[in-house]
Design brief:
Layout lengths: L5 E2 L8 E2 L6 H14 L12 H8 L3 H13 L3 E4 L3 E4 L7 H6 L2 H13 L4 H16 L4
Antiparallel strand pairs: 1-2, 3-4
Helix pairs in contact: 1-3, 2-3
Length: about 140
Amino acid sequence: MWCTSCYNTQVIPFRVAFEPGISLYEQVVYAAKKAVVTGQLRAGDAFPSVRELSKSLKINPNTAHKVVMHLVAEGVLEVHSGIGTVVTKRSCSSAADRSNLLQKELEQLIVEAKRLGLTFDDVTTAVAELWKRLDGSKK
């Protein structure tokens, strides 16, 4: 996806593609979780401070604080005195957590398919064919 305002800095170890119509908070939470699930951020890795997050992504400090607190509440991050905020050992690494990251994209795909009048079989066939092509399968 092409975006006009993507940020990827030395301080922030993940990419955020700011999209209109979706709250900045939700987008940053999603990007952080995706970084953990994909292994871009691993257990024990330092997570940016609220100030670093705010400054690097050019978002309100209150929004950055809300993001960090949300990730702490979900068990993705933990705060250690004197060390800072780090990715937890548990993190979001289960198959269910990885699958949940796709919910937005899946919903968009299904809505668009229904708008075009495609059937469930049309969509699953197209997904299977694309999967095979990207996977390099000959079948």
